[in-house]
Amino acid sequence: MSLFASLTTAITGLDAQQDAIANISDNISNAQTIGFKEIDTTFQNLVTDSTPQLNQPGGVTSQPLYENNVAGNLTPSAVTTNLAISGTGFFQVKAPPAAVAQGQTPVFPEQNLYTQAGDFTLNAQGYLVNSAGYYLTAYPVTDPQTKTVNTSTTVPIQVSQLVNAPVATANLNLAANVPSSYPLSTIPGPPVAANPAYVAPSPITEQVYDATGAAQTETIQFNHTAADTWTATITSPNDTITSATPAVLQLNFSDGTNPAFPAGTLVSMTNISGGPPPAITIPAAAANGAATFSLTQNFGSGAQTLNFNFGTYGTASGVTQYADSAVTVQSVTQDGTPRGSFENLTIDQNGFVNLNYTNGQSLAFFQIPVAQFNDPDQLQRLQGSAFSSTIDSGSPELNPPGVNGGGTIAPSTLEQSNVDIATQFTQLITAQQVYTANSKVITTADQLLSTVIALIQG
Fold this sequence. Notes:
Blueprint: H1 3-29, E1 39-50, E2 55-66, E3 74-76, E4 83-86, E5 91-94, E6 113-115, E7 121-122, E8 128-129, E9 135-143, E10 148-149, E11 155-156, E12 163-164, E13 171-179, E14 186-187, E15 193-194, E16 204-209, E17 215-226, E18 229-235, E19 247-253, E20 266-271, E21 280-281, E22 290-298, E23 303-312, E24 319-322, E25 328-334, E26 340-347, E27 352-357, E28 362-367, E29 370-372, E30 380-382, E31 386-388, E32 397-399, E33 408-411, E34 413-415, H2 421-457
Parallel strand pairs: 13-23, 13-24
Antiparallel strand pairs: 1-2, 3-34, 4-33, 5-6, 5-9, 6-31, 7-8, 9-10, 9-11, 9-28, 12-26, 13-25, 14-15, 16-17, 17-18, 18-19, 19-20, 21-22, 22-23, 26-27, 27-28, 29-32, 30-31
């Protein structure tokens, strides 16, 4: 072994520790960078010639050790569009699109990139973009009502559905009890005459919506006309049909003599409207069958059919007749909605991007997938805590959150850098001491060479 070999060996030690210090510096400087992944350093010895009788030192070389698969701490965020992945996986993103003129559709690069920097917010064009400028992509939802997802493609998420169209009411559901002991509106026995002391129960009102989204008032007035018999008069002020000729149905309740129809349950409904009858369709009554009827109305925007659901024949659901002092409403609901404007955006743990509107509607238009790799530590690092796939990392496997071992989406959450400052300072001290030790080897070799040169000169 020559003194010159000692010099070159010590130099490789200096170079290796310089690399280690550079990686430590990178880690410390990004200790608060969202989604940053630590870079460690590994060392391998270099061998030029080694036998049982002789070893020629080769020195050392360093290589970066990426820790892309080590998660950072998840911390809550006040921003609802900030996201993290609870478990393994990456968000799929796109680099910014090429600049286009106003009004033109942006063209995104074909290459997909991946990140765990989930500090996404809506930009001026309605795209979800993180602080590094990467655009979040997701599966498109083909049916927002049923959340049917097209998993064959991904697109950048853009909130462009700013208006929720009105939905005309199609179904009205009523659950109420009419009191069995309520006074009769008529005096029994021939001739049948009106009861002058009769006071009609308070009507039931519900707001429904026409085809334009305008609110309309639907009124149901119950009257006790005979034992186990009530009428239901349905009117709406703006309906050109029932405002002229109200829709009147006769409801017959069981007296308990038929085992198929327990006392107080609906037995049948009949249309007894006077004059030109409104278009009412009543299916045949049957025990355990739906107590429904359809009524055609017109609020000025064309014929509109409402399906009224009064429960089930022969069961204690919907409209019943039991002892009480007044008509009691348990629930009355309808399925129409007025026009709505975009209010805010929320994302759930299944990755569905839900747009919430001022009319109370919430519709999902995208589902954020989770990308997994066979060896995520072999991903190619890019600026802004992003990665691209490589041959060594394997191709990305894209799945809905929670599928095939992938993580779930954590909304209003951010993944912090996985750098541990205490560990970095410990490694920094070690690297500094080893660097100093290598420099001491160079100093010692230099002194020995100086001695040799002095011998020659002497």
